[in-house]
Amino acid sequence: MNGLLYTLLFIVSVAVTLGGCALFTNGIEWVGKRLGISETAVGSILAALGTTLPETSIPIIAIFFGDSQDEIDVGLGAILGAPFMLSTLVLPLLALLLLLYARAGKREAKFQLNYGDVVTDLVFFTIGYFIALGCIHNPNRLIHLIAAIILIGLYIYYIKKKLSTPDDGGGSSQLEPLIFAKSKSTPPYLMVGLQVSAGLAGLILGAHLFVTAAESMAGMFDVSPLLLALLIAPLATELPEMSNSFLWLYRKKDRLAVANVTGAMVFQGTIPVSVGLLGTDWVLTSSASSTMVLAVQAVMFYLLQIFIGGYWRAWLLSTGVLLYIGYTLYLAFGQ
């Protein structure tokens, strides 16, 4: 009976997430439209911030209000897990979905992107993560404080750069009516704000239901806590970004889909990391620091594809998932 209940909870969590995703993506596009912001900036800033800010509360609460080392470790895991999953799992999954959509005849098997914007996001992430990696072997608290300030400043500069970059028009796509005000050609700000809030609430609720069901199933089947922390918890926290991007990709809004992921990577690689630098000694195990190295390697691989070929080949981009699979197998069987 318990297995049936947990399965139903999984189904409900997916349904709630998809419903919240539909409301949020439609609403956040209208926010960008009303504010005159480019599609890329909408994806990399508005959508990314909307879906990452709630989960950022996890490391803040764990690190600054936790009473034990275990809680601090949970906070550090949350900080490092998100960039690792976004870079080695979510982006490759976008590429795999693109190939599946193309195979089904829904679209062509090629991303329609402004790769200059993609490079900007990935370079900002790489700079931030290199700074964080450099602090692992330097216990000086003053150095950590300076690094945290630099990371916060880096993200502020990133936002300024994104908002000041004019839209070249290449990402313009048909904007569907606001779900909460379908009869209005230009919906009022109040209705747009209500829909975005409702969508974000649905995404958060769906993620929490998902992780509750997953933890219950893991306990029932005696799944390793380490694998649970690596696979289930990060998957739940990144579920909003994945859902939004997958839906935008299906609607052929590639700029929004990719920018939502790469923009979230920039945020996760700067702001939560600065929380870790300020609130902990930033002493990481080899397993934890390996996720940072693998994330940087994945991003360098994605950048290299753009610099050499000028664009992403979906099949090649999808191979980045091998880093995620390899690390998972290492944790499962190599320790």
What would you say this structure looks like, in words?
The protein has 13 helices and no strands. It is mostly helical. The chain has a single domain (51-176, 225-333), classed as NCX, central ion-binding region (A middle domain of Talin 1), CATH 1.20.1420.30. The longest helix has 35 residues, at 69-103. The mean pLDDT is 84.
What would the keywords be for this entry?
single chain, A middle domain of Talin 1, mainly alpha, 335 residues
Topology:
Elements: H1 2-35, H2 39-65, H3 69-103, H4 115-136, H5 141-164, H6 189-220, H7 225-237, H8 239-250, H9 254-268, H10 271-279, H11 286-309, H12 314-317, H13 321-333
What's the CATH H-level homologous superfamily? NCX, central ion-binding region
CATH domain topology: A middle domain of Talin 1
Low-pLDDT stretches are none
In CATH's first tier, which class applies?
Answer: Mainly Alpha
Summarize the helix and strand pattern as letters.
Answer: HHHHHHHHHHHHH
Summarize the structure.
By secondary structure, this protein is mainly alpha-helical. The protein is 79% helix and 0% strand.
